[in-house]
Specification:
Layout: E1 6-8, E2 14-16, H1 17-28, H2 34-41, H3 50-57, H4 65-82
Antiparallel strand pairs: 1-2
Length: 83
């Protein structure tokens, strides 16, 4: 049986292709299960998925994938307006 491919996260921790696929699936789901994302992220996140995952985990971006981009655009516009 082939072993899952591993890549390194930013801190050097190995991230298996299976866990990476799970994190990608959670982030692209219609409504992200934040609890499951937290559990899957516990041992580290792949570097390229880290920004989006942290936005969702911290509540900065909504768990709903279809509302995520518009919500971030609104936040960016309001940040510019404050300057």
């Amino acid at each position: 049986m082939p072993h899952p491919v591993r890549s390194l996260s930013h801190d050097g921790a190995a991230v298996s292709s299976v866990r990476r696929a799970k994190i990608e699936r959670l982030l692209s789901a219609r409504a992200c299960d934040v609890s499951a994302l937290r559990d899957a992220s516990w041992a580290g996140l792949p570097e390229e998925l880290r920004p989006e995952a942290w936005r969702v985990l911290l509540g900065y971006a909504p768990p709903s994938e279809e509302r995520r981009a518009p919500a971030l655009q609104v936040r960016a516009r309001s940040a510019v307006m404050r300057w």
